[in-house]
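Quick one, tokens below. Sequence please?
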């Protein structure tokens, strides 16, 4: 399969399961771009939202935020930043889908499927031990205990996914592949995806 004939590859993932590493590895092997942090920058530029706001609200939603948005929507002048960022990211996902690429998160699997765009959807997960090891190396947890930090981020991510898709993040029926990166490793995961792409419709 040549690069121009590849579907859009979407990578959904548990927090700490290595989505960026796998996307980067696939990009190098396939010769197509991958988007994660660049995606945030482009969304900020096109939407007017600040990068920090997109990073904090672009994939995560707390129960409090969900309830507040619901209550405030009775006020016709209220515009939820979560909804605004979702719409901005949706436009960006659709814009990127004009040529083969790899998109990490951002509900890209759901958005593209809803718009009839061919995708190859992957979900990455790992046991807590491997996720703790990875996050400790990335040092993203600040002063928060790593396990609690991971559990909170995952809960916020699941809330966001359910809120905008009415689906459960990680449901195997929504993906071509569901891979345990803790057991298979990053290189093994990239190899597995590449082999699966060869026989993808």
């Amino acid at each position: 399969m040549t690069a121009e004939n590849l579907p859009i590859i979407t990578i959904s993932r548990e927090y700490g399961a290595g989505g960026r590493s796998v996307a980067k590895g696939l990009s190098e092997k396939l010769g197509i771009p991958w988007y994660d942090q660049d995606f945030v920058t482009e969304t900020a530029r096109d939407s007017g939202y600040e990068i920090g706001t997109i990073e904090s609200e672009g994939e995560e939603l707390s129960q409090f935020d969900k309830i507040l948005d619901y209550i405030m929507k009775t006020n016709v002048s209220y515009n939820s930043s979560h909804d605004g960022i979702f719409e901005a990211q949706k436009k960006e996902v659709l814009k990127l889908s004009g040529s083969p690429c790899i998109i990490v998160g951002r509900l890209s699997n759901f958005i593209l499927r809803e718009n009839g765009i061919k995708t190859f959807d992957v979900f990455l997960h790992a046991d807590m031990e491997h996720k703790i090891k990875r996050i400790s190396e990335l040092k993203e947890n600040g002063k928060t205990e790593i396990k609690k930090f991971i559990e909170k981020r995952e809960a916020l991510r699941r809330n966001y996914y359910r809120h905008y898709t009415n689906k459960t993040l990680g449901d195997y029926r929504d993906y071509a592949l569901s891979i345990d990166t803790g057991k298979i490793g990053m290189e093994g995961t990239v190899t597995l995806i590449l082999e699966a792409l060869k026989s993808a419709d």
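The chain has a mean pLDDT of 85. The two ends are 11 Å apart (CA to CA).
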